[in-house]
Amino acid sequence: MAIVVDRPKLKWWEHLYLPALAKGLRITLGHFFKMLRGNTKVTMQYPEEKWDANLPDHYRGAPALVTDEQERERCVACQLCEFICPPRAITIKPEEIPSDDKWAKVEKRPKVFDIDMIRCIYCGFCEEVCPEQAIYLRKDYAITGTSREEMVHDKEKLYEIGGVRVGLVNKWNALK
Amino acid sequence: MSDEKPDLVDVQIDGEWHQFPKGTRMIEACRQASVEVPHYCYHPKLTSPGNCRMCLVEMGMPPRPHPGEATPEADENGHLPISWMPRPVIACANTVAPNMGIRTNSELTEDCREGVMELLLANHPLDCPICDQAGECTLQEFSVEHGQGESHFREQKVKKPKNVDVGPRIRLDDERCIMCSRCVRFTDEIADDPVLGFTDRGSHTVLTVYPGKELANNYSLNTVDICPVGALTSNDFRFQMRVWFMKEVKTIDVNCATGSNITVYQREGQIYRITPRQNNDVNSDWMPDSHRLNFHWINGEDRLTDPMVKEGNSHRITSWQEALATTADKLAGIEGSEIAVIASASMTNEELLMVNRLVKHLNVGHVDTVPREGENDNYLVAADRNPNTNGVKLVLGLDNPGSQLDAIKKGIKEGRIKALLCLQENLVDDAGFDGETLDKLDFFLTAHPIANPTADFADVVLPGGCWAEKSGTMINVAGRLQRLNKVIDGPGQTLEPWEVVRDLIQVTGGGNGIYSALDIFKQLTEEISEFSGLTWGRIGDLGLPLIETGKTIPLLEREKERITQGLIVG
């Protein structure tokens, strides 16, 4: 049901608007003096100042690949993240780990692992679906570039963002 | 009831009565009654050793009264009451009996399945992320349905050999093996190359290849298909693509006249894998490795992508319009009797009908196809390595394909033949033509998927799609009409071969109202008596017997014999 709001009937001096202007300036002046006394907080000067320190733990930034404390790349190219990714941002081409490699028993690793950050919607499904604890959403949010190609994170870039993560399940241990 | 139909027996499955022929395996009876019995070792084309125990079901028979007890009375339908046995039986190796009862959904059956699954998973590694079988693994499927979620076992899993080379095309992972022995039986019973077996029996049982031998026969990759888990994987397909990404297309193999039914797996225009598809009248459940792996060239670098015309000594990429206009120009001044057409026995019936039209339209003097003879391997590979020689005989009307080739060569050398249209064939490599002969021609056109040596001499080179890029029908060695289905689009400006021939007819002044391969099939049914009454849908995925050729497929004959002996279900 519609509610009818009556327009207030303005006095002649209210029609001049000057008193209202003065009222507003009084508030501005009040803040100005408060700021001089250091009582008013000013807008953060992004990007010189950043709010990185205040990001919550569950913040979902750019997805990245991680290595573990044994310097093993966690990803085994099972392609589940590629499958689950709603905007199809992930492209993986697997390869076999050569038999002379230290981690030859893992058998499989990604040859190509690209995440198109123009497509990525930061949903975190890739992290959730990963059976190897290999992909995590980090707190990097300012993903920029001057071309589309630059916006595609390749394997090298993903490991650079991801870094080393400790305390993960050591599935490919000595007994495996 | 059973008096009227002496070879049928009444069986109760999950409370409902059905009738099955005597001797039907319980597992097959359940399948016919649309009740799934999970199994690993049972395969209808192999003997049933009953060693996986997954198909355990609860079974009952009419009670046998003690002396003095009243005999059980039949109900109004003639069924006796069933007295359930306290212990389960395997459904794969037992046959149905009159008045038998089977319970696949009882507590006992479910307990058995959970128990078997737990034991199978006791030593199974957590390899799913790196295992090619993931996504089509029955161990995964049944552990969802019958798994317990967690194991009672607290011991370390048994360590076994991984990543073992058992043959040139196969990789074995013993930790994943569940000892179903399907591969052992296949190599012994079907491939007649018994090189696999189990050693170190006990907790450390491993599948092994006989010392000094390897699993290298031409049917070895079928073991990968029948392996219910990821123990045997194909080197060719290893880590190429996860199965859930690929689209499947049912089509037929074109590497020999058998025309094995296959499923082609593709993703985004690239073919990754071919597996046999069951057709008991053609290839049973199997196919040869040589045919299965002959697809990598389809995504190769040497594919023709655009029509080309020759200028001086090199070819220039052009449009279809220009290439066809050039062809029309050149053919205009040449008499029909001075033109030869060499088509291919790897063309579909539809394409051959179009070739026939072209031949009649231009009044062509010489027509032939290139024969490919090999050795019959006494399994599935036919001696004739062309997939549609019977189609050439029936549709193109050649009685003896290949007999005119020498005459055509001679005609070109003597200048009697001035123009040659080579459709989907490689004359230099496969038909013994040399550059000297081909250079004598006033006009030489070739349509082929690949930039082959023949194309070097051609005035007009057209990209014609390969078998995976076209639809049509073919007639196999035993006279069976089968459908070839398009799997992917051809690269670049490639057209399906029937389109190429249609355009050639149109550009040389012959009109036709053909817009799809189906239109041509309709004309086939009108013009050729053997095809009359057929429709695309009626051919179906498994094909239809069309003509009598008197030829049989050796592997199928042996299979029939084994079915008669009762060794396999078939």
Tell me what you see in this structure:
The complex is a heterodimer of chains A (176) and B (570). Chain A contains 5 helices and 5 strands. Chain A is of the alpha+beta class and 176 residues long. Chain A has 2 domains: 14-43; 55-162, Alpha-Beta Plaits, CATH 3.30.70. Chain A has a 3-stranded antiparallel sheet. In chain A, strands 1-4 form a two-stranded antiparallel sheet. The termini of chain A are far apart. Helix content of chain B is 25%, strand content 18%. Chain B contains 16 helices and 24 strands. Chain B has helices at 26-32, 107-122, 138-146, 182-190, 222-226, 289-292, 320-332, 349-362, 389-396, 405-413, 427-430, 435-439, 497-507, 517-527, 536-539, 554-564; strands spanning 8-13, 16-21, 56-61, 83-84, 89-90, 100-103, 164-165, 170-172, 196-199, 206-209, 232-234, 247-252, 261-267, 270-276, 308-311, 314-317, 339-343, 366-369, 419-423, 443-448, 460-463, 472-475, 480-484, 544-545. The model of chain B has no long low-confidence stretch (mean pLDDT 93). In chain B, a hairpin with a 2-residue loop joins strand 15 (308-311) and strand 16 (314-317). With 570 residues, chain B is an alpha+beta fold. Chain B is elongated. In chain B, helix 2 (107-122) crosses helix 3. The chains are: A alpha+beta (176), B alpha+beta (570). Chains A and B meet through helix 3 and strand 2 of A and loops of B.
User: What is the fold named in CATH at topology level of the domain at 308-553 in chain B?
Assistant: Rossmann fold
Number of domains of chain A: 2
- Report the strand count of chain B: 24
| Residue fraction in strands of chain A | 5-15%
For the largest beta-sheet of chain A, the strand count, sense and barrel status come to:
3 strands, antiparallel
- How far is it from the N-terminal to the C-terminal residue of chain A, by CA? 70 Å
Biggest sheet, spatial arrangement of strands of chain A:
2-3-5
Estimate the strand proportion of chain B.
15-25%
In helices, the fraction of residues of chain B equals 10-25%
| Biggest sheet: strand arrangement of chain B | 16-15-21-20-19-17-18
Would you state the CATH class of the largest domain in chain A? Alpha Beta
At CATH level 2, the architecture of the domain at 308-553 in chain B is: 3-Layer(aba) Sandwich
